Structures are given as structure tokens and as C-alpha cells.
Amino acid sequence: MDVVTGLVAEKPVVIFSKSSCCMSHSINSLICSFGANPTVYELDQIPNGRQIERALLQLGCQPSVPAVFIGQEFIGGANEVMSLQVRNELVPLLIRSKAIWIWNKSK
């Protein structure tokens, strides 16, 4: 768990992903579409990826990826992020975490 905490510290948006996961790619694309630049850790491409995946499962992320942290807070997986988007709560959360500074809906 300490490994995950260290990786998300002081970063506005962190996504734990796997390079073969289409949902991880979709969530990353969604967050980037608002102008955020998330830190992405591909668990299948880093040495301690299995250890991090076990910690994410302990946090309750089922499946383990994507696991999204915004403002150092565990948000959840793809379903939770999409629910925030549908309720128009994702952009305000990104703004509060300083991942983005301004949002123009007319884009």
C-alpha cells in the first residue's frame, strides 16, 4: 500500500493501467480530453507491477485496472470515472485537484 501512496503523492491524476487494457486507454483518453496530463503507470511494464496490482486489489479496485486517483484520492475504476462524467462531476474534480485550471464547455 505504501508503494501506491508514494506513487500518487503530489500528482494531480494517476492512472494505474495495463498496456493491453482498452478500458484503461479509454479512461486515459477521457481525462486527457479535458487537458489533464495524468501520470500513467503500466503495471505490465514496470518491475514492481505485480506488487502494485495486489495493493490496488486490497483497496477494492475490481478489476485492478484502470485504477484512478485524482487529488491523491482513490476514485475507483472505469465505472466510477464514467459515473462522475455522466453526473458532470469529473471536470470540477479535475479542477479542484489542479489537474486542469479552466474548462470551456463550448469546445
Automatic annotation (TrEMBL):
One of its GO terms (cellular component) is cytoplasm. The keyword Cytoplasm applies. Belongs to the glutaredoxin family. CC-type subfamily. PROSITE patterns: GLUTAREDOXIN_2. This is Glutaredoxin domain-containing protein. It comes from Lithocarpus litseifolius. SUPFAM superfamilies: Thioredoxin-like. Residues 13-75 form the Glutaredoxin domain. Keywords: Cytoplasm, Redox-active center. Transmembrane segments: none annotated. It is found in: Cytoplasm. The keyword Iron does not apply.
